Amino acid sequence: MPQSKHVTGLKIRLPARRTLDPDMRRYFDVCEEKLGFVPNVLAAYSFDQTKLRNFVNLYNDLMLGESGLSKLEREMIAVVVSAANRCYYCLVAHGAAVRALGGDPQLGELLVMNWRAAPLPHRQRALLEFVHRLTVAPAEVGAPDRAALRAAGFGEREIWDAASVAGFFSFTNRLATAVDMMPNPEYHTQAR
User: Do 44 and 14 meet the contact criterion of CB atoms below 8 Å apart?
Assistant: First the structure.
């Protein structure tokens, strides 16, 4: 996997795909089968397979694992956090996921531009208010914020999961921004 023209801004040489461990080659094959491409964030991590494997495992646990939060809600968190952090890569990639999972192209665009303008049920509005505040003013988050989530029907595990997803995307937003990582062009046309 020589450095892709779509993984722009990276100042590291990426290993040839054939040199990846068998499990990571299989994972990239699954990405190509399901998505039609390997997301640039995964390609970028391939220079260090331990970090790649850790990233994949944490992402899959947070975004696809068991949770009281739906997959759509977790993708909505990714978009709202990424909008607050102005992470182009994640806004494009996870905006596409919101469009696909929500079946509503407008929802993905609203969350990217101004999540407060989106017509959301109370539960999702409370969730997004919490993760936005956790992203832009983490030192100000406290008991009243968690109480608002409980009043909207969230349990302790869901609050933990929301904070975990928000924290993960604040981390990945900073990495993507630091290296000027560009989203795969395919994301722009998905679920439109």
Answer: yes
- CA dihedral angle for residue 25, residue 28, residue 29, residue 31, rounded to 10 degrees: 160
The span from the CA of 44 to the CA of 57, in Å, is: 16
Residue 47: which of 89, 8, 19, 23 has the closest Cα? 19
> Are residues 177 and 128 part of one domain?
yes
Where do runs of H (alpha helix) occur along 65-87? 71-85
CATH number at residue 37: 1.20.5.810
Which tens digit of pLDDT belongs to each residue from 150-189? 999 999 999 999 999 999 999 999 999 998 899 998 999 8
pTM of the predicted model as reported, rounded to 2 decimal places: 0.92
What domain range is 82 assigned to?
Answer: 71-189
Q: Note whether 90 and 135 are same-domain residues.
A: yes
